[in-house]
Amino acid sequence: MAAGSGSGEDTSRPEDPPHPSDAIYADGPETGEIRVSADQIRAEAEDLADDTLQEVAAKAASRDDRPEKGDDGGSEKPGEGDDGGSDKPGEADGDPDEADDDSEDGDHDEDGGEPEDGDDPGEPGAPASSRADADGEPDPVAAAKPDDVIREPGDISPDTAEGETGEARRVGAEGETRPMEGGAERPNPKLALVYNPIKVDADALRGSVERLSAEAGWEEPLFYETTVDDLGDDVTRQALEVGVNAVLVAGGDGTVRAVSEAMAGSGVPLTIVPSGTGNLLARNLRLPLDDPETMIRATFEGDSIGVDIGFAALRRPTGKTEEHAFVVMGGMGLDAAMIANTSPQLKKSVGWVAYVDGAARSLAGAKPFRIMYQISGHRLHSARVQSVLFANCGSLPAGLELIPEASVTDGSMDIVVFQPKGPLGWIFVWRRVAWDNSFLRKFRAGRRVLALRTRDNAVRYARGAELEVGATEPQFVQLDGDEFGEAVSVRARVVPGGLEITVPEGHDVSGL
């Protein structure tokens, strides 16, 4: 490892976990350091997962002890009344040991990196009563703030059929509406299919699932369509409540994310039938992308593996906190702004290439922003960045390897900090992702070239069980390619093996 730069940092505090993606460079970490760090991270992630399960059990017990509905007509929502804690990154700490590490990045600010007075990212906004009318419906004016635009999730078309309420519905094999509460009366085994009707040929998909279920001796499947108002998580919970033995999901990355969120920790296997724009989780698991019948058949004849699932708690500018799952990656900053600026219609027409248009729109006005971030068990950092990613997977469409050493089964989360210095810095970012990671690493000669080079700080990698990041101003956040509005801080964590995924029999899971 290179010697310290003499910046005055407290070297007694642990450094960030060494990342395997840096090992190939001349100044990269040793293999032993990476192995020890990976073991520590997985142990810490398992402890966090155990704590989460205990919290969920305690909340469930608390709900069981509550009076029946009707006493006060309301329920407490998660995150309301939570001031977020006084030890969040991005809030004043005052500890001189938590030094600004920009000196090693070559990035010095005149203000020394401290947030200006009065810039409190957690300042409460409009009262909740102003966001809904007397009937509990969302207030369009409040929903459109701050830029008078109401955004729909990009994964689902905002249009619904005439006469429909916009809520998810259960359908029969011919597409007819069935009662949502049905299904519990059927004997096991049975499965549920949750699908986005915009992304798939619904008739053909239902027919294949019904036929293969009958061939396998399973009962008639349950079918659920997603809509704008229910991306699939609510209907998946209903399917689990009636005791299904397997769940299939067909849709875009957003649909897979929502269904995975509901299935985390259930132990019920999830079959991904690839469809939609990116199929990022299916790509990273090396599942067949153009053979839906193979994946459907795997539900009855295949194997299952436990993969990691991430959760991100988003703290809004109003002070409210809400948590959502991610199975691929999430981010704060430019990557999320790029997704927010991508035209849904263009995305439907040309697929993931539409993000190039969003990137062009976002880069034109992109400005670095100040963050404080901390990986669990390690020191606090301050930096000016363009984007921060927290990832469960590393492969993107078109053969791009954002994080070549990322794994969905290692029990840890990969963190990528983009901090290019000016236009030239973006060249270094592109070289690292598109050239070093996606091309040179694949060849022995290319790896020799990289072994002669030192790392640049335009892209910084780290690994951990938990990440907390806070910004001085609200920033866009994305999870698995869906925009999730603005947040002033994010706490991301990973649950090792928290999701059971079905794979075809004999599928090669080495290196996942």
Folded structure, characterized:
The chain has 512 residues and is of the alpha+beta class. It is built from 13 helices and 16 strands. Strands 7, 8, 9, 10, 11, 12, 13, 14, 15 and 16 form a 10-stranded antiparallel sheet that branches. A 6-stranded mixed sheet has the order 2-1-4-3-5-6, sandwiched between helices. Helix 4 packs parallel to helix 8, helix 5 runs parallel beside helix 6 and helix 9 crosses helix 11. The longest helix is centred in the first third of the chain and has 35 residues, at 31-65. Residues 1-13, 68-88, 90-132 and 149-165 have low confidence and may be disordered.
Unreliable stretches (pLDDT < 50, length at least 5) are 1-13, 68-88, 90-132, 149-165
N to C succession of SSEs: HHHEEEHEHEHEHHEEEHHHEEEEHHEEE
Number of beta-strand segments? 16
Question: Strand count, sense and closure of the main sheet?
Answer: 10 strands, antiparallel
Average of the residue pLDDT scores: 76
Termini separation:
28 Å
Q: What class, by secondary structure content?
A: alpha+beta
In helices, the fraction of residues equals 25-40%
What amount of the residues lies in strands? 15-25%
Count of helical regions: 13
The gyration radius over C-alpha positions equals 23 Å
How are the SSEs ordered, and which strands pair?
Layout: H1 31-65, H2 102-105, H3 140-143, E1 169-171, E2 177-178, E3 191-195, H4 202-215, E4 222-225, H5 233-241, E5 246-251, H6 253-263, E6 270-274, H7 280-284, H8 292-301, E7 303-315, E8 321-326, E9 329-333, H9 334-340, H10 344-350, H11 354-364, E10 369-375, E11 380-385, E12 387-391, E13 413-418, H12 422-437, H13 444-451, E14 459-464, E15 466-479, E16 482-503
